[in-house]
Amino acid sequence: xxxxxxxxxxxxxxxxxxxxxxxxxxxxxxxxxxxxxxxxxxxxxxxxxxxxxxxxxxxxxxxxxxxxxxxxxxxxxxxxxxxxxxxxxxxxxxxxxxxxxxxxxxxxx
Length: 109
Known about the structure:
Blueprint: H1 7-25, H2 34-56, E1 71-72, E2 75-76, H3 78-97
Antiparallel strand pairs: 1-2
């Protein structure tokens, strides 16, 4: 028998995986820095705007038994967890694979 994972459980697993990726695997440790936390509210504002539109208009629906039931701007609170995991993972990978800084242009360029 296969048991479905609730949206809440999947969101929590996503956050845990993103934190492990950032802190332990890639060791970028973005989540431990002030810059991440000062810039993250910008992402949250636009996430709430887009989630509010999509869920408020019924474009995206959630099974009530799979979520906690707490909603913020029409969207389940779990969406913030998924957004956090997505942003943290993407930024950690970006920082990890970024190319070295280009040398400044010299007089021959």
